Structures are given as structure tokens and as C-alpha cells.
Fold this sequence. Notes:
Blueprint: H1 13-16, E1 19-24, H2 28-39, E2 44-50, H3 53-63, E3 67-70, E4 73-74, E5 77-78, H4 79-89, E6 94-99, H5 103-113, E7 117-120, H6 125-136, H7 144-154, H8 161-168, H9 171-181, H10 186-192, H11 197-211, H12 216-230, H13 243-246
Parallel strand pairs: 1-2, 1-3, 3-6, 6-7
Antiparallel strand pairs: 4-5
Helix pairs in contact: 5-7, 9-11, 9-12, 10-11
Amino acid sequence: MKARTNRIDSGTAALSAKARVLIVDDHPIVRDGFSNLVKKQRDLARCGEAATVAETFTAVETLHPDLVLLDLWIGGGDGLDLIKSLKARFPQLRILVISFSDEALYAARALRAGARGYVMKSQPSKEVLTAIRTVLANELYVSPAVANSMLSSSVGQSRGKADKTSEVLTDRELQVLQLLGSGQSTRKIADLLSLSFKTIEAHRDNIKRKLGLQHAVELVHYATTWSQEQLPRLSPNDLLPSPELRN
């Protein structure tokens, strides 16, 4: 394993002795929670925060993080596209996705995009730290369930309906399906993903064709049922960091 060289920011020796973590999330309270968690570690240091795609690029260019802790849904774009763009521009950058988005649907996609790991925000802080240190050690991190699913897929074992649905859709189509299932209109989805109304309409048509659906009503019903079956139901409190992250 190659030795990791920490980059120095503003000549601060204490900070350079630790792995530098950039936290990217569009919820300030979540950023604060993970910042507090990182600051408590002897081997880690929070080098900065970002809430949008543009802020993330600026932060990576100026702060030179060793690892980016990245949510999949951020202001001004989506995480999968951001991962691809960051890796194209900064090939050596380590990215760990931490999200409420179901790992069964997005972990493999995030890894294909260039991330080195995927961890759910619902995991305890100890597991989040394990994921961070695993990725910093140039290793991949996924949960045992995701690892087993990816292994089963690689050897051609039977997959469930949800997996088959996600397999036939592109990253963007899967996002549109999920947003449709959460009750968002075509116009709102276009705003959330920073795309045109016509582009979202085209994605809807592609989803219907790939899933064998005939009408818009069928599509919305399918999306709603699928989302309820596959995605966790979150309460407002689920957006708050766990108590150990807040202290």
C-alpha cells in the first residue's frame, strides 16, 4: 500500500499531520454534526465545508483535502454527477458518500462513478469513522449487505424486483423515478436537478418505455409504490445528526 502524503494548508503543521476531510452537505446542521465528529479524532481534521457543486470544486482546488465526505443530494446538482466531475478533474481524490439514499440502489452507482465508499447517515458514528479510515487507507468501503449483493450480481444469481428496476435505468432516470415517487411534479424535479422541463419529460418517457408502462398515471403509481417499498421513511428528526455527533 502506498504511503499517503498529507497536503499542507496555510503552513499549519498540526493540521498537516492529520488526514484532511472536506464535508459536503447542503444541511448546515448535518455539516456541523460531522465536523464535530471529525474534530474529535486525533488522526482527522476538518479542512472545510461546502453546500453546493460550485463550492465543492472551489474547496477541493484551494483546500486540497485527503477525503471528501459527500452527500448525494446537494445544492446546484446531484452527487453522482459531481463524483464523476471531481474524479475527472482530480483523479487521486478519495470520495466517501454518506447519504440517506438507499445504499441498495445507489452504492454500486456511486462506486462506478468514482467514489471509494458508501455509508448510510443512519449508521452510528463509529461506523462512519470506520468508513472514513477505510477509504483513507485506499480501500473500498460498503456495508456487508451491499458487498453480498454486488457479489451475487457478479456471479449471476437471481436479483429482486427493485434491483432489476434499478438495473435498466440510468443514474438520472433512477433519480427522476425516486423524485416522482416522493410526489414531486415534473417542473419541481426539473428545478431540483437543474434541468429543463423537456429533459425531465424525456426521462419520464424513457422510464415508461424501459419499464413497460403505458401512461403517466401508471408511471406515477409505479414510482410511488416502488419508492415506498425501497426507500426508508424519514421523519424530520432523521435529518439531525445523532447525539454523539452534536456534542
